């Protein structure tokens, strides 16, 4: 039984409910602010696949620190102190070893996955 305020749900469960609502709402713009930060890797992978499949004509703005969450995106915007310092496709940024995004990917150990995109 779910409490009226959802207080007995984990943060990850609440995030899944919000994603489910976004799927049902059919909004033209969807904002995903760290939407999978509190779920396990298998659930995150399933959510990413669902987002790619379900939101083909919508604009999805994904705010994330986990780079594997944004590998499928059309564009990546890198902010530094609130200022846009890079904006391009992940593959384009990965072709530039001096880019900040390349550096983040290197630090996170996801260079191989990014280069495949």
TrEMBL record:
Pfam families for the chain: ABC_tran
How does this protein sit in the membrane? Answer: Multi-pass membrane protein
Give yes or no: UniProt keyword ATP-binding. yes
Q: Which Gene3D superfamilies match?
A: P-loop containing nucleotide triphosphate hydrolases
Q: Which UniProt keywords apply?
A: ATP-binding, Nucleotide-binding, Repeat
Say which domain of life the source belongs to: Eukaryota
Q: Where in the cell is it found?
A: Endomembrane system
A GO-annotated cellular component = membrane
Q: Which InterPro entries match?
A: ABC_transporter-like_ATP-bd, ABC_transporter_C-like, P-loop_NTPase
Q: Where is the ABC transporter domain?
A: 4-37
Q: Which GO terms describe its molecular function?
A: ATP binding; ATP hydrolysis activity; ATPase-coupled transmembrane transporter activity
Q: Which PANTHER family does this chain map to?
A: ATP-BINDING CASSETTE SUB-FAMILY C (PTHR24223), MULTIDRUG-RESISTANCE LIKE PROTEIN 1, ISOFORM I (PTHR24223:SF443)
Task: Kindly provide the name given to this protein in its UniProt entry.
Answer: ABC transporter domain-containing protein
